[in-house]
Structure formats: structure tokens, C-alpha cells
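Q: Got a minute? One more chain.
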Amino acid sequence: MSNIVEAVKSKLMGYNQKSLERDGYDFWNDHIKYVFRHSHDLAIKRGADVEVCELAALFHDMAMVANNGPRDEHEQYGAKMAVSMLIELDYPKDKIDVVEKCVLHHRGSKNDTRDTLEEQILADADVMAHFDSIPSLFSLAYNKMGLPVEEGRDFVKRKLIGDYKKLSPEAQKELQERFDTIMKVLFVK
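A: Always. Here it is, folded:
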């Protein structure tokens, strides 16, 4: 891990600790660490800029972790945080631009155009992370949303199916067996 990635991760972890104390939610352990791992692995596998993908993963939800701006606009606030912090760290301008685009276009629900390989990698990694943290989805359904058991189960199932459909064809292929197993094991009626 490069020094710049370490510096950004350190900042994120500070925000994460405050979020954990404030809201009781551990963004790092419940989501971002998986996005980071998938971004790293997919960058290597697809021949993308690994450092850019790692930085984009760290910044993609940073605005939510830092409680900066409305949640439904976190990609915009996160992109601004990325640009500001990376300029401060004297990161190359051309790479800052790519990180910014990755953060702006990572949300599958937005159907944004992704012009770079790094943008697609972050979008795929963000969705793939949901398959690593299924207990968090159930916690959201039952604890945060207060859904009854059957409705919570259906919510998580719909979420995972919707997420799977948002993946690039390449990522769908990679996740197919795991997706099928999850559907069979968790959602058998």
C-alpha cells in the first residue's frame, strides 16, 4: 500500500471511529474494507491503476462516514473531499480527476456512464461488497427499518438481486456461483 493510500485510509479511519461512536455503525468493517479489497483485486485482474482504484474505494462513501452532506448525495460530497484531500497530498492532477470520476459514478442506482476502467471497477466492487456483508443488510432490514422477519428477508433478497443486475457482465460472471449459492441457501422457501 502506497503512502498516499495509507494517509487517506488513516483519515477515513478517524472518521469511521467518530461514526462508530456517534451512530454505532462501522462503515469500515461492514462495507468499505470489502470495497477496498475488491477494487484492489479487480484492478490487478483487469489491468487498471491499482492505486487509483484503492483511493477511489476509500473515498467512495467517505462523505457518509464523515457525516458530510446529505446521504443521497454522498458521491458528490465524497468527490469534493477526494479532490481537496488529494490536492493537499500533492497527488498528480490527472489521477485526481480519475479518482473524482470514480467516486461520482460509483452508485449503481444512478445508472451513470462510466468512461474509465477504474470507474467500472469501483462500481462493481461497491456492489460485490454487499455479498460479503449480508449480515449488515439483515441488520438494516430488521434494526434500522424495523421490518418483520418475512419482509426483511424479502428486502435483502430484492436488494441482492438488484445489486447483481447492476454489475458489469464480467463481474456477474465472476460472482455467478456465489450469487446462486446465496439465493439457494438464504432464500429457500
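A: The mean pLDDT is 94.
Q: Perfect, thanks.
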